[in-house]
Amino acid sequence: MEPVRHDAMRARNLELVLGEISRGGPLTRAALAELTGLTKSTVSTLVGSLLEAGFLSETAAVRAGERGRPGVEVSLSGARMASLGLEANVDYLAACVLDLTGAVRRSVRVERDNRGVPAETVLKAVRELASAELAQARELGLTVAGAVLAVSGPVRDGVVLSAPNLGWRNVPVELELPVPVSVDNEANLGALGELWFGAGTADFLYVSGEIGIGAGLVVDSRLFRGTGGELGHVLVSPSGSSCRCGAAGCLETYAGQEAMLTAAGVSTVDALSAALTTGDDAALSAVSAAGEALGLALASAVNLVDVDRVVLGGVFGPLFPWLAPAAEAVLRTRLTGLRGSVPVLSPSALGESAATLGAAGRTIHGVVADPGPFLAR
After folding, report:
1. Distance between the two ends of the chain, CA-based, in angstroms?
2. Smallest Cα–Cα separation from 254: which of 235, 270, 269, 282?
3. Do 70 and 132 touch, CB atoms closer than 8 A?
4. Separation CA 190–CA 162 (nearest Å)
5. DSSP letter string over 82-142?
6. CA 147 from centre of chain
7. What is the per-residue pLDDT for 1?
């Protein structure tokens, strides 16, 4: 057999074996042979390579029947391979390290006002944070396969096309780290985080509520890709206030974090939550108005993509008990006549960590899909 063809076949078989273990949990070699259609000897060789490389670990023996030697199950190991998720948002930087099992090994958030700060200065701070987390990962004995940076704005080919709240336009992301780095939209990565680790289902719309508002669409358990997704700039009032994007009446000017805080007369989300809990009229009115505007934008989105579930993340999560009723009321008015039902709204299970978890998870899924290049590391 030609060497290239043999290598390609081995890579495909490694993917089959590791993928089955990732999806199905601990499995014996016999079970893997049955699931993959590979011979037992081939599975044994592949599992041996993955064990030696630290991708797998052996667990307790399982007796399938009364006769024969009990099989030993193998499962993903968190002892070696890991990934780094990063986020650069308007008022903070964040990072997390995930191991191959999806366990969070490190998580950090740095409050920082990035508005009006040159992109290169923000990216330098991201690089410093990433370098520190890579060093911490090494201290844990982990090999980081790669890093993904989440940014609030549409991204194409490693370039942030526009992030009005950061003041970025056509900014190439180059972090100069000792691992491969890519960049993606924060809402898209938040959707992946919810899909893999949180409240997501096979089909849902994820809405990230921060100073800006983004959205990520998951269809058949796959992220729907495009350069849009900025739900915050959907028109909800033609005569509304001016938005940072240059238009007027955008959802962000009603339901964005700053818009809600200003209307409620408070300075932080914690203060807003406290005011809502005590029944403060200004806070209740501000969040109700935000919910109505959000409902209008969601109705337009649902009429286009026809999802049955909407997951509200970012600051919308802690505000969900007060925000959702107003949004649901608008959805019932706008959608019931055509659809007969409205999508279920639910709060994010991951909160503010959704994007960094999705970013780190993207690399982990890439390693599972093609483990070959990492076996020799």
Report:
1. 26
2. 235
3. no
4. 18
5. EEEEEEE-SSEEEEEEEETTS-EEEEEEEE---TT--HHHHHHHHHHHHHHHHHHHHHTT-
6. 13
7. 47
Helix axes 3-24, 29-36, angle to 10 degrees: 110
Tokens 């023996």, residue located: 61
Give me the domains of the chain, ranges plus CATH numbers. Answer: 3-76 (1.10.10.10), 81-192+354-375 (3.30.420.40), 199-348 (3.30.420.40)
Amino acid 65: pLDDT: 52
Is pLDDT of 360 > 50? yes
More confident residue, 304 or 93: 93
Report yes or no: 102 and 361 within 8 Å, Cβ to Cβ.
yes
- Which tokens hold the place of 117? 């700060």
Cβ atoms of residues 209 and 255 within 8 Å: yes
Question: What pLDDT, in 10s, does the model give residues 232-272?
Answer: 989 999 888 888 888 899 999 999 999 999 999 999 999 99
Helix or strand run (H / E) with residue 197: helix 186-197
Residue whose token pair is 């932080």: 268
> In the numeric block, which tokens belong to residue 146?
């790669």
- Closest listed residue to residue 310, CA positions, set 341, 346, 334: 346
- Three-state DSSP at 213 gives strand
- The residue with greater pLDDT, 79 or 230, is 79
What 58-62 contacts at long range (C-beta under 8 Å, 24+ apart), as own/partner pairs, is 59/26, 62/28
Amino acid at 25: G
Question: Which pTM was predicted?
Answer: 0.90
Residue type, 36: T
What digits encode the pLDDT tens for the residues 173-215?
A: 999 999 999 999 999 999 999 999 997 788 999 999 988 899 9
